[in-house]
């Protein structure tokens, strides 16, 4: 099972690609980079450049994202796919077979850094695998928020078992379990 990452060509998505490549290396897993075209033709799928508001070829975005992944971790096997349709739907379909789904966060206008992009918001609560939303550059001084939906499909104990293996990602963390019994849980190296 691979780590799957969504890429749309934006800097936040390339940051997510680099993070996902490092995580794939730690897990000794492959990395699959997915670009989802929302326009164009079957022969030339296109997606929107979020800053310039122009259509750009999906294969160019995919090449840049794969290059970012291989520059980050040359030893990880990286595959790429251009998909068509709704980005959230396509990433959720890929998450069914993934070990982990990684997406970037995008801010809007004056709310940069405060809002989560609609694709990341949509997949975070609906994927069949764990989801990481990468926001900004990594900082070992900031806490990590981990949300766990406690239901019969997800076992929060499985998440807790994985966290000690990932101490380099967690300076400190706060977990929130949502379900019949919920509340804050301390995570990370200072457990």
Structural account:
With 191 residues, the chain is of the alpha/beta class. Helix content is 29%, strand content 29%. The protein has five helices and eleven strands, in the order βαββββαβαβαββαββ. The protein has helices spanning 11-27, 58-72, 87-95, 118-124, 156-162; strands spanning 3-6, 31-37, 39-40, 45-49, 54-57, 78-84, 100-104, 131-134, 144-149, 173-178, 183-187. It has a five-stranded parallel beta sheet, sandwiched between helices. Strands 3-4-5 form a three-stranded antiparallel beta sheet. Strands 9-10-11 form a three-stranded mixed beta sheet, with helices on one face. β7 (100-104), α4 and β8 (131-134) form a beta-alpha-beta unit. α1 crosses α2 (58-72) and α3 (87-95) packs parallel to α4 (118-124). The two termini are 29 Å apart.
Cα-to-Cα separation, first versus last residue: 29 Å
Name the shape in a single word. Answer: globular
Helix and strand element order: EHEEEEHEHEHEEHEE
The whole-number mean of residue pLDDT values reads 76
Multimerization state: single chain
How many helices? The count is 5
| Low-confidence spans | 107-116, 157-172, 176-191
What is the total tally of β strands? 11
Going across the major beta sheet, what is the strand order? 6-2-1-7-8
Determine Rg (CA atoms, Å). 17 Å
Q: Return the structural class.
A: alpha/beta
Helical content (DSSP H or I, runs of 4+): 25-40%
Largest sheet: 5 strands, parallel
Strand content: 25-35%
